[in-house]
Amino acid sequence: MRSISATMFTTLDGVVQGLGRPDEDTRGGFAHGGWGAGYDDEVLAAEMGKGMAGTGAVLFGRRTWQDFHGAWASATDGNPFTAHLNAARKYVVSRTLADAQGWANSVLLRTVDEVAALDEDLAVIGSAALVRALHTAGLVDHYSLVVHPVTLGSGTRLFEGPAPLTRFELTGSVTTSKGVIVAHCSRITAGGR
């Protein structure tokens, strides 16, 4: 049975916008880009590595796919994440992209219904709008929430409006040396898990 797992880097107040660098996502005048700097450590790297070690394809929204494409497609740095991302099948969900050419093994999908029709495990990295749509459609089976000990007060949040009632159970957690909490949650289905 196919499974969709979403890894979301978030602040205590739920902001998921612009983790990596100041210019990553300035929509809405967001001025806190790069808020995740300084929180990396070996514990977080190992935890994210576990997620990358899983089989299956990677699923992106358009903005994240384009950002990752720019950063990873031509990288040759020996980073195991680079090798994994470049080798993996990558699905990008977009109504506006003309095609998914330019990054090996990329496939363009137009709708969440097309995602639902796929028969392979999928890992979503970032892509908040896509995750919200997948969650609303009842398609997210697992979350890995990487919660940073900071509040920003503004920015795109993981859930910006009502989300359907969905129950999850905490299946594991790790706290890093920098105070980041990685919480793994799995959806509870009507008959249990």
From TrEMBL:
Domain of life: Bacteria
GO biological process, one term: riboflavin biosynthetic process
Pfam families the UniProt entry points to: RibD_C
Cited SUPFAM superfamilies: Dihydrofolate reductase-like
GO molecular-function terms, A-Z: 5-amino-6-(5-phosphoribosylamino)uracil reductase activity
Domain Bacterial bifunctional deaminase-reductase C-terminal positions: 3-182
Signal peptide start-end: none
Name used for this protein in its record: Deaminase
Organism (species): Lentzea guizhouensis
